[in-house]
Automatic annotation (TrEMBL):
Biological process according to GO: fatty acid beta-oxidation; long-chain fatty acid import into peroxisome; peroxisome organization; very long-chain fatty acid catabolic process
Gene3D superfamilies, A to Z: ABC transporter type 1, transmembrane domain, P-loop containing nucleotide triphosphate hydrolases
Domain ABC transporter: 421-641
Protein name: ATP-binding cassette sub-family D member 3
Subcellular location: Peroxisome membrane
PROSITE patterns: ABC_TRANSPORTER_1, ABC_TRANSPORTER_2
Chief localisation class: membrane
InterPro entries for this protein: AAA+_ATPase (IPR003593), ABC1_TM_dom (IPR011527), ABC1_TM_sf (IPR036640), ABC_transporter-like_ATP-bd (IPR003439), ABC_transporter-like_CS (IPR017871), ABC_transporter_sub-D (IPR050835), P-loop_NTPase (IPR027417)
Record's subunit section: Homodimers. Can form heterodimers with ABCD1 and ABCD2. Dimerization is necessary to form an active transporter. Interacts with PEX19; mediates the targeting of ABCD3 to peroxisomes.
Pfam families registered for this protein in UniProt: ABC_membrane_2 (PF06472), ABC_tran (PF00005)
Family from the record: Belongs to the ABC transporter superfamily. ABCD family. Peroxisomal fatty acyl CoA transporter (TC 3.A.1.203) subfamily.
Biological source species: Capra hircus
Length: 641
């Protein structure tokens, strides 16, 4: 019994009690989650309904799992910061000890005792300043390195194949990915580095001070209790952070949307309507930020009391206990100067420790906010991973409920079950259901074949599936069944109605997506590029814009017709086996259109019936799920677009 009682010290009892309290709270939380799971008949966080997809943004096991998943991408820079943190901690402790010696020399009126630590302090000042500023420099570099590595990783996934297209058109889990890839990544990296620095610095200080002082168990117990309490009441911060970032993204989107479509809005004189839209979105953001500010105000009030002032009170109590207890064995034989020296050193050590523990408690606030950014980044990473594996989530529309096409509901809508065979000089749809990603079936069973060199006119009313056919052909949309035989992606070339003009030179507009080095590898000279411009009657633009290396904002510099002709010149440059022209000459005059079509053979979507003699076959869709594929003869009647 005596052997056991010697371990029942105040320090050990406090630590044991705090540990027991922590384990009880964790057990209670796990049990509550288990009961919730049994009640619903499924684990929490696996609800597939729209309302159940809200991300958890609290500091729990899921948060740390998410955080470690992201930090795996950013390892390799932490050791250097850790070394600097150790140096900084050593400097702080040395400053306390040396400062105590200086004050002891002053109080004892001993010049020799004063001079030695005083000149040591002067000599150490440059090194201490260097360590402090080098630590700041290292932390800023670490933030930048984290952002670079995480951004590179995300863009490797985002720009892999057609993932960027699928995220905005096939999957509806992520809204405003541009904000996630820019602002959220930056804020996450800054937050995690600050948290790592603060916690590491405080942990080192605690370990060092605990080895040099007595009675820190009370501080540790206070840390655990106050930390658990504050973490509990801070839980809404994570969800509020997610909502804030989403509203910021929506606000930026409506502004960029107005910039993109400013000309159309100006023609409609829609400035008042756009003003209402922007103000409405901005008002939602302002209301949320106002509520967030009020919540942080209340949390700041509680944080200041618990983490700052009460932590200082506990520090004073711990420091004063051995000095106010006259029978304490520590100071029975100490002189007055020794008592002063011990008081200054112990007091500063424990007060520094109390402040460090207070910073840990306050770090929980940043950790809760970090949980919001972590949830958004990990959600983005998961969606990118799913899309690159051919998986996507989108609300499927039941054709049985809509009753659009008779018998359409009998087709199993399973994305990706169709077979794609890459073969040169042929496009063949073999029992392929033409369906949109959200489940709208346009044609039940599509069958036709086109050989290289054949010209096919594809026509039908709006919404019948003309552009949808080419999205399936370009592998932008999943194949819901059947077999599609076609050349590889690089041997198909799509020319849309609204051409894309890249950032760069005039040459880049013709050879896109190739670069100048790719042009050289293909052995195509600038004279050949000029011939391509001649084919679309656009060679005058060379002199007008200042040559091939002229850099302009080509989306604004070129007119609608010029952009369409530039896209056709781009087609001549790439020389694909099949060209898919989706109303790509709608802004070009008839005579120029005839001149362009005389230089190419293609598979096209077109509204102009004047070009009917150019084609040898037609594919007509009626918009009700029916189609016909026939050869064009003299008896073929011109049908509607």
């Amino acid at each position: 019994m005596a052997a056991f009682s010697k371990y029942l010290t105040v320090r050990n009892s406090s630590l044991a009690g705090a540990t027991f309290l922590l384990l009880c709270l964790l057990h209670k939380r796990r049990r509550a989650l288990g009961l919730h799971s049994k009640k619903n008949g499924k684990p929490p966080l696996q609800n597939n309904e729209k309302e159940g997809k809200k991300e958890r943004a609290v500091v729990d096991r899921v948060f740390f799992s998410r955080l470690m998943r992201i930090l795996k991408i950013m390892t390799g820079y932490l050791i250097l910061i850790a070394v600097m943190l150790v140096s900084r901690t050593y400097c702080d402790v040395w400053m306390i000890q040396n400062g105590t010696l200086i004050e002891s020399g002053i109080i004892s009126r001993n010049k020799a005792l004063f001079k030695k630590p005083f000149f040591k302090f002067i000599a150490a000042t440059p090194m201490i300043s260097l360590v402090n500023n080098f630590l700041k420099f290292g932390l800023n570099e670490l933030k930048l390195c984290f952002r670079v590595r995480l951004t590179k990783y995300l863009y490797e996934e985002y720009l892999q194949a057609f993932t960027y297209y699928k995220m905005g058109n096939l999957d509806n889990r992520i809204a405003n990915p541009d904000q996630l890839l820019t602002q959220d990544v930056e804020k996450f990296c800054n937050s995690v580095v600050d948290l790592y620095s603060n916690l590491s610095k405080v942990s080192l200080s605690q370990m060092y001070v605990m080895n040099m002082t007595a009675g820190p168990a009370s501080m540790m117990a206070y840390l655990l209790v106050s930390g658990l309490f504050l973490t509990r009441i801070r839980r809404p911060i994570g969800k509020m952070t997610i909502t804030e970032q989403k509203l910021e993204g929506e606000y930026r989107y409506v502004n960029s949307r107005l910039i993109t479509n400013s000309e159309e809005v100006a023609f409609y004189n829609g400035n008042k309507r756009e003003k209402q839209t922007i103000h409405s979105v901005f008002q939602k953001l302002v209301e949320h930020l106002h509520n967030f500010i009020l919540f942080r105000f209340s949390m700041g009030f509680i944080d200041s009391i618990i983490a700052k002032y009460l932590a200082t009170v506990v520090g004073y109590l711990v420091v004063s206990r051995p000095f106010l207890d006259l029978s304490h064995p520590r100071h029975l034989k100490s002189s007055h100067s020794e008592l002063l020296e011990d008081y200054y050193q112990s007091g500063r050590m424990l007060l520094r420790m109390s402040q460090a523990l207070g910073r840990i408690v306050l770090a929980g606030r940043e950790m809760t906010r970090l949980a919001g950014f972590t949830a958004r980044i990990t959600e983005l990473m998961q969606v990118l991973k799913d899309l690159n594996q051919g998986k996507y989530e989108r609300t499927m529309v039941s054709q049985q409920e809509k009753g659009k096409y008779e018998g359409a509901q009998d087709i199993p809508l399973i994305p990706g079950i169709g077979e794609i065979i890459n073969t040169d000089n042929i496009i063949k749809f073999d029992h392929v259901p033409l369906a949109t990603p959200n489940g709208d079936i346009l044609i039940r069973d599509l069958n036709f074949e086109v050989r290289s060199g054949a010209n096919v006119l594809i026509c039908g009313p709006n919404g019948c599936g003309k552009s949808s056919l080419f999205r399936v052909l370009g592998e932008l949309w999943p194949l819901f069944g059947g077999r599609l035989t076609k050349p590889e992606r690089g041997k198909l070339f799509y020319v849309p109605q609204r051409p894309y003009m890249t950032l760069g030179t005039l040459r880049d507009q013709v050879i896109y997506p190739d670069g100048k080095e790719d042009q050289k590898k293909k052995g195509i000279s600038d004279l050949v590029l000029k011939e391509y411009l001649d084919n679309v009657q656009l060679s005058h633009i060379l002199e007008r814009e200042g040559g091939w290396d002229s850099v302009q904002d080509w989306m604004d510099v070129l007119s609608g017709g010029e952009k369409q002709r530039m896209a056709m010149a781009r087609l001549f440059y790439h020389k694909p086996q099949f060209a898919i022209l989706d109303e790509c000459t709608s802004a070009v005059s008839v005579d120029v259109e005839d001149y362009i079509y005389s230089h190419c053979r293609k598979v096209s979507v077109i509204n102009s019936q004047s070009l009917l003699p150019v084609y040898s076959y037609y594919l007509h869709m009626d918009g009700r799920g029916n189609y016909e594929f026939k050869q064009i003869t003299e008896d073929t009647v011109e049908f509607g677009s």
